[in-house]
Amino acid sequence: xxxxxSHRKRTLRDVAKAAGVSLSTASNALNxxxxxxxxxxxxxxxxxxxxxxxxNALARSLQSKRSSTIGxxxxxxxxxxxxxxxxxxxxxxxxxxxxxxxxxxxxxxxxAQLHLQALLDKQVDGIIxxxxxxxxxxxxxxxxxxxxxxxxxxEGPPGSVSFVPDDEHGARLAMERLRKSGCxxxxxxxxxxxYLAARLRAAAFCNFAEACREPMFGDWSxxxxxxxxxxxxxxxDQLPDGIFCGNDEIARGVIDxxxxxxxxxxxxxxxxxxxxxxxxxxxxRPPLTTVDMGLMELGRQAGLAMLSITRGEAIEPGTRRLPxxxxxxxxxxxxxxxx
Amino acid sequence: xxxxxSHRKRTLRDVAKAAGVSLSTASNALNxxxxxxxxxxxxxxxxxxxxxxxxNALARSLQSKRSSTIGxxxxxxxxxxxxxxxxxxxxxxxxxxxxxxxxxxxxxxxxAQLHLQALLDKQVDGIIxxxxxxxxxxxxxxxxxxxxxxxxxxEGPPGSVSFVPDDEHGARLAMERLRKSGCxxxxxxxxxxxYLAARLRAAAFCNFAEACREPMFGDWSxxxxxxxxxxxxxxxDQLPDGIFCGNDEIARGVIDxxxxxxxxxxxxxxxxxxxxxxxxxxxxRPPLTTVDMGLMELGRQAGLAMLSITRGEAIEPGTRRLPxxxxxxxxxxxxxxxx
DNA sequence: AACGCTTGAGAAATCGTTTTTGCAAGATCA
DNA sequence: TGATCTTGCAAAAACGATTTCTCAAGCGTT
Lengths: 339, 339
Fold this sequence. Notes:
12 strands; elongated; disordered N terminus; DNA-binding
């Protein structure tokens, strides 16, 4: 009867035995540290390769106190924000062998606590905290964590390290684009006033609009876009020649509502959105000129920062506002009265 | 000079010392195993609590050979599928202390390989593989993995464990709903023919339509919905009285294109979508009756299955087709000629 | 009183690595 | 020719838990 081939995982011990050396020598050779003869080292590496040895990250981490693992805590379940950011984070970390635990808290504090505890127990090297809005509720526990924390998308408490899109810059891009279209009576239709992002964009709007018409706060939906236009028309005021919308959904609603009334975009009114959520911005008619927050890049930056921190490099606390990018499509006129 | 308070993590050793017992006794007491006096046990547990002891999961895993960690490999970066499923998986696992590594491969084989290796090195207990489509490319490595693999959303190779939405059931729900609206000339406008999901839904459509008009394959976009209607109208054939769309984006395009031509939904034609991607289905005018695949539930099921497997319980290989659910909104007539 | 059984707890081995220390043998130097 | 350095490697001690032995004390039985 044949002895069955052992499917047990190969350990360092197997390598050492096969190479006829001690554990320490094998370890040194594989890691390129310590003093080990070049030929011996080469032999050990070759053998490790041959028998398919892969070091057990658990054992390694236990020893080194670095798990090469980080946690990402988010409250955004349906994830148009989290996934691009997560992909960015992952992208810059995977080459360093760092993996990311993704934890969706679904805005449930109990769940958040559970996840957080699991992450700490698993000795993650750091946590990236991201939320659609952080300006209201602040999870107390996160403030006193024994490991580095980085905030992404939403700003953390004072003294923390945060990466957020530069809403003001985004708003400026939008306004400049509208100006370029020759718009002089620009309107701002945006989301709820209790969103920091909405307030920031609105403030920037007021700075850049010559005569600042009161921004219209509502919610983030297409429906609100419709309603805003309806209100505008029924008020009988002079219509604007440019509209800067707080997000793409509102913009889509606005454009559709205008078309329903025979007002054409961009012939009569130019429209700029915010988010570049492609499923919307590409499919409005006409396709939407909009502001892209570069979420993936934001994720990359956060990931890189985390990498530095876990390597012990000091990092300046504070909020980094990452520039936005204007994506030109067809909802903005090329020049005043040309289209 | 005061000796600084040690911020070193509390270990089992600290507990044992504080309780004046040995490591083994402390361990036994905390885990409720072995023989240890009730009072002693209580004291140990109390002390552990007091000094805030939390066992190091790394050390525990090293010993137990179970990391309480699974990997989720996906190629869907912008994630309307992955995140709900991931949330479902997480939801059923977090209570068991199991965390999920999310790896976005972005359809890059090198990246997939990298992530996979990292997961294996980290001794994950299993891998959940999910992709928007698996019917074409099959990652070879996944077939011979030394740990359990579960496929979610897309079906795995023969002999594997898969959880997928029951496309046929979904299609039936859609068709039944259209029948209920009194539709007799039903059309199917769907995505590319090389998507298995498209073929399955189309086949079911043909089964349920009395006179099966050739399904119209295109792509998954709103634009294709517009184009399909344009084609239909220019052909001059009799228009259908019901349209079953392969996804919500197509449905939205269809509805908008019909409205542009003065054809009203649901007065003249009833429309049903597929996906219940709310940002679309809620915002079509009228809001879209559509088929929900229950992705979160699918994730839950996959998570539970993984739990069973890692506990050593055998699990029947094969594909589980999870039922869909019809979400009624306003794009379907209530009865023939009533609306 | 001798034997066995149960209870309670400690000692030591183990998981798979890394890291520190020790120690021969050969090379270099005065 | 000794004294000191370097080289190459092995032995052993971590890392923080779990688990398997071992063993003493207390108890009941004959």
